[in-house]
């Protein structure tokens, strides 16, 4: 594990996580980067993809490499809110009620197949994700810091799934769509597991510690955001609300998440200032899942991602020279 006497920068922290997770996961470098950005900004991540493409393995490998406490919740149709947050139990020996904390009390919580649980159970995570606390009976309990929810979901086309409510989707900083690997990467996966059949998340070692995360988080917060960049983020959010293809546009929370993610992306790239490209490369993953398409857009088979890409094409980004003048 990394020695706490030499704390890592955001750039080297990401490189350490990427290298260790890459011992098990092939070809998901961008996913690990987004998980790192979420970890450094207090965000949450939603994975979507068909079964068997390593969504849960990636999440667990990342958790193990970070050295943070980790719980996995298998979201099924019969799971109850109390199964996530916890409950109170009467102890006959003492004649008192005792609070039993649920699996949400961990630094990294993986909600596996979140859209197989009922909307009522999904909403049990809302308070935790929004306020980093949960209420059990009359007690409000703080969750650990850092705290990040990594949820996986199957595509809506599959049987036995529920669509996440808008309020739930808005709590996720990123939504990442994981597809099938390229033939080259799939060949590498076959070779790797042929040589090491037992390879899995349990093979991952801790490479960073909490002090590294806190120091890197502070570095991200200190990244400079020029006024033209803030205007650009606001213009993108406003354009999603005014688009004829949307019924509901990006929320103010979405704009905040995009700015935070852009700052962390700059820090992970070794820069102390945000560039327009930091915003552009993250906009679809931060904004698309939060918008609601208009009826006409749905009938035209437009996707949320396509709408955000169209917005990026129509909203002018500030020049790097203008950013330089502000620094």
TrEMBL record:
Query: Which keywords has UniProt assigned to this entry?
Result: ATP-binding, Nucleotide-binding
State if Hydrolase is listed as a keyword. Answer: no
Among InterPro entries, the record links this protein to:
AAA+_ATPase, ATPase_AAA-3, CbbQ/NirQ/NorQ/GpvN, ChlI/MoxR_AAA_lid, P-loop_NTPase
Task: List the Gene Ontology MF annotations in alphabetical order.
Answer: ATP binding; ATP hydrolysis activity
**Gene3D superfamilies in the record:** Magnesium chelatase subunit I, C-Terminal domain (1.10.8.80), P-loop containing nucleotide triphosphate hydrolases (3.40.50.300)
Q: Name the coiled-coil region(s).
A: none
- Domain (AAA+ ATPase): give its ranges: 41-182
A Pfam family: AAA_3
Name under which the protein is recorded = MoxR-like ATPase
Native organism is: Halopenitus malekzadehii
The uppermost taxa in this organism's lineage are: Archaea, Methanobacteriati, Methanobacteriota, Stenosarchaea group, Halobacteria
């Amino acid at each position: 594990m990394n020695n706490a006497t030499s704390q890592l920068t955001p750039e080297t922290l990401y490189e350490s996580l990427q290298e260790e997770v890459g011992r098990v996961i092939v070809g998901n470098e961008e996913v690990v980067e987004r998980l790192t950005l979420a970890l450094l900004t207090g965000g949450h991540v939603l994975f979507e993809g068909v079964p068997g493409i390593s969504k849960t393995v990636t999440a667990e490998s990342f958790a193990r490499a970070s050295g943070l406490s980790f719980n996995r919740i298998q979201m099924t149709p019969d799971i109850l809110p109390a199964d996530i947050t916890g409950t109170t139990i009467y102890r006959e020996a003492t004649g008192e009620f005792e609070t039993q904390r649920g699996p949400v009390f961990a630094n990294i919580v993986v909600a596996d197949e979140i859209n197989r649980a009922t909307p009522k159970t999904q909403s049990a995570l809302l308070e935790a994700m929004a306020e980093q606390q949960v209420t059990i009976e009359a007690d409000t309990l703080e969750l650990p810091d850092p705290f990040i929810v990594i949820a996986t979901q199957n595509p809506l086309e599959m049987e036995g799934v529920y669509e996440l409510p808008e309020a739930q989707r808005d709590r996720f900083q990123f939504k990442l769509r994981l597809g099938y690997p390229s033939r080259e990467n799939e060949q590498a996966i076959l070779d790797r597991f042929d040589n090491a059949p037992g390879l899995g998340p349990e093979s991952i070692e801790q490479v960073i510690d909490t002090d590294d995360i806190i120091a890197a988080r502070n570095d991200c917060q200190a990244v400079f955001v020029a006024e033209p960049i803030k205007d650009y983020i606001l213009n993108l959010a406003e354009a999603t609300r005014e688009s004829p293809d949307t019924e509901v546009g990006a929320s103010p929370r979405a704009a905040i998440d995009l700015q935070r993610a852009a700052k962390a992306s700059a820090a992970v790239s070794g820069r102390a200032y945000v560039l327009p490209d930091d915003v552009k490369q993250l906009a679809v993953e931060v904004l698309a899942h939060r918008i609601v398409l208009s009826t006409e857009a749905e009938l035209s088979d437009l996707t949320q991602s396509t709408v955000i890409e169209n917005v990026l094409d129509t909203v002018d980004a500030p020049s790097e020279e203008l950013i330089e003048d502000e620094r």
